[in-house]
Amino acid sequence: MAMFTSHHTGHHAPKSHSSLSAAWGIVTDGIAEVRASWRRRKTAEMIEGLSPELRKDIGWPTSDILFEKERDIHH
Q: In this predicted structure, what is the pLDDT of residue 61?
């Protein structure tokens, strides 16, 4: 039977991020946000293409519901 041991000094060199690494992180975060925005917009377009009855069933506001809300606010 073999026994393995390791010795840790508890001292780690501080990790530094280069400016290139930081810039790359900003770029990838920006790309991820653009993709998420695009997906939200495409999903909204797809839902808007559904019939008003179906949109109402899933809880998506229809133009007649918005009109009724505006009318109630003005009265």
A: 78
